[in-house]
Amino acid sequence: MNQLVAILITLFFLGLIVSFTVTHKLKDRYAFLWLVTAIAGVLAAACIPLLNRFAQWIGIAYMPTFVILVTIIFILALLVRQTMSLSNQSDKIKTLTQEFAVMEKKLLELEKAAEGRERS
């Protein structure tokens, strides 16, 4: 029964990800990561006895502890990825702002030069 509930919840999550991707609420760049995550969740829910044996094999007596450990590692990896993306976007915004300021200065200089020519 618990396994059935886990499978249904992960299938619901998979459906949400597909829905968000189809309606373009989730960009393709990130959709792949979340689709793989959802599919891994469905597979993990379907293989709970196998996960239990694997957890015992690596020395973890209580399988949910193994699942929580893997989840925490995944979340940390996702946070690092998002932080890298945020840093990259910040650099791009800084560069664009600087380029905009240079272009704005050149435009003002051109406007002043054109005004000077009109007066003469």
TrEMBL record:
Q: Where are the transmembrane segments?
A: 6-23, 30-51, 57-80
Keyword line: Coiled coil, Membrane, Transmembrane, Transmembrane helix
Residues in a coiled coil are: 86-113
Name of the protein in its database record: DUF2304 domain-containing protein
Q: Which source organism does the UniProt entry give?
A: Paenibacillus montanisoli
